């Protein structure tokens, strides 16, 4: 390899924030997607990104968290119905009235912005190829494997397991970062726990204390006692930074992917960028101030035996504005096997997915460059 090529490679490894700060006027080849994968690709004279005529009016279902918590609230039943509808038909919803204070939200966003504004030598301290590290700074998806890089730098923070020890390894600069991130992680965990109860209820799986259960019924319940397992489950926070990009039509902030966990709660700023698939088209999710975007992950699709959908989404970049998002991914403990709930399997609706676990998932993402929905596809059982 020529010295020039080596130099180029090391520049890419420093990420897109660094690249942007060097004042690049063009997207380097490493980030240029094949024509068919670009965001504004034209198929039969139509640009799929903007082809959805409904896009301008597209609104995600909005779920009111406060009303969901009102045990005897008159609107609760309606909110549960909307929640089930959103998980089944969109795989996404916007959560309002979540009760996390504006201060905690803005502290998290500001601390995240300031982290990415640190000099590269500070951020670099957290760069590691170890996917299991409690803190991992990096760029693209998998910078040791990706053929084409995406226009995104990230900071991944493992929040659970071992909540008492891990935060001490999280960035110590900016000085308030840890405190803000720990507080924010706890608050999102609470929201997740309540959403799990609501989702299990919509699936008809909420645990009831039943003292007359037979041994067989108890065994049957084992795999449905995910409510408790999820409450002490894994939590990973990913802070994404998408700097302005000189040629946003040639690349993506994040390529099409689905999230592997049970539910993801995304906090983002006022800059649009997130798109989801709807009826074969890409639609932009418009930021709704003060809300979270929540999406169903692969584990919930598997657990619900395909009733709730883990929908492919991607992130666009733009030439003028930097964008920050904080995704909080929640699922079962790492060692737990995820499988369709037995109560959702019957003759009419046979089991659709194989058992799966984190180890298989980690092996999968470490061994390949593709971020498409292949992992979930690989867990599907052949249907006759
Ligand atoms: O930036 C966003 O809005 C979404 C990020 C995302 O999809 C992810 O972190 O998995
Ligand atoms: Fe995602």
Beta-strand content bin: 15-25%
Helix-residue proportion: 25-40%
Based on CA atoms alone, the radius of gyration comes out at 21 Å
Main beta sheet: strand number and arrangement?
8 strands, mixed
| Unreliable stretches | 1-7, 49-54, 209-219
Shape by Cα distribution: globular
Describe the 3D structure:
By secondary structure, the protein is α+β, with helices and mostly antiparallel strands. It is built from 13 helices and twelve strands. The chain has helices spanning 3-13, 16-21, 48-51, 65-69, 76-89, 102-117, 120-123, 177-202, 215-222, 226-231, 298-303, 358-367, 374-379; strands spanning 62-64, 92-96, 135-139, 153-160, 234-242, 254-257, 263-268, 274-278, 281-284, 292-296, 313-315, 323-331. The strands form two sheets. It has an eight-stranded mixed sheet. Strands 6-11-8-9 form a four-stranded antiparallel sheet. Strand 8 and strand 9 form a beta hairpin. Helix 5 (76-89) crosses helix 8 (177-202) and helix 6 packs across helix 8 (177-202). The chain is globular, with a radius of gyration of 21 Å. The termini are far apart. The model is unreliable at 1-7, 49-54 and 209-219 (pLDDT under 50). Fe (ii) ion (FE2) binds at residues 257, 259, 313.
């Amino acid at each position: 390899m020529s010295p020039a090529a080596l130099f180029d490679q090391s520049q890419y490894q420093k990420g897109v924030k660094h690249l942007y700060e060097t004042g690049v006027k063009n997207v380097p080849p490493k980030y240029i997607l094949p024509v068919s994968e670009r965001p504004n690709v034209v198929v039969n004279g139509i640009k799929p990104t903007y082809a959805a005529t409904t896009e301008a009016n597209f609104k995600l279902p909005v779920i009111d968290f406060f009303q969901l918590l009102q045990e005897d609230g008159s609107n609760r039943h309606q909110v549960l119905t909307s929640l089930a509808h959103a998980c089944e038909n969109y795989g996404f919803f916007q959560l309002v009235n979540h009760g996390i204070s504006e201060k905690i939200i803005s502290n998290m966003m500001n601390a995240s912005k300031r982290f990415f504004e640190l000099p590269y030598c500070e951020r670099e301290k957290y760069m590691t190829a170890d996917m299991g590290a409690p803190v991992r700074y990096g760029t693209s998806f998998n910078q040791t494997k990706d053929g084409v890089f995406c226009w995104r730098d990230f900071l991944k923070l493992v929040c659970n397991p071992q909540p008492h020890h891990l935060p001490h390894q999280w960035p110590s600069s900016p000085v308030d970062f840890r405190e803000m991130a720990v507080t924010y992680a706890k608050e999102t965990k609470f929201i997740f726990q309540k959403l799990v109860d609501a989702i299990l209820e919509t699936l008809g799986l909420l645990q009831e204390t039943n003292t007359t259960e037979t041994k067989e019924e108890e065994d049957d319940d084992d795999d449905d006692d995910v409510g408790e397992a999820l409450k002490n489950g894994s939590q990973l926070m990913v802070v994404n930074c998408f700097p302005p990009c000189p040629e946003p039509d040639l690349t993506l902030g994040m390529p099409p992917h689905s999230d592997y966990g049970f539910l993801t709660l995304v906090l983002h700023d006022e800059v649009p960028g997130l798109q989801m698939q709807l009826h074969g088209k890409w639609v932009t999710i418009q930021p709704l101030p003060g809300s979270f975007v929540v999406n169903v992950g692969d584990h919930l699709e598997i657990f619900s035996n395909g009733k709730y959908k883990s929908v492919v989404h991607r992130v666009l970049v733009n030439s003028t504005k930097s964008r920050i998002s904080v995704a909080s991914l929640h699922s079962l403990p790492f060692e737990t096997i995820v499988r369709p709930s037995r109560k959702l399997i019957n003759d009419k609706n046979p089991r659709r997915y194989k058992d799966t676990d984190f180890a298989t998932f980690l092996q999968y993402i470490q061994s390949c460059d593709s971020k498409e929905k292949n992992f979930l596809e690989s867990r599907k059982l052949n249907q006759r």
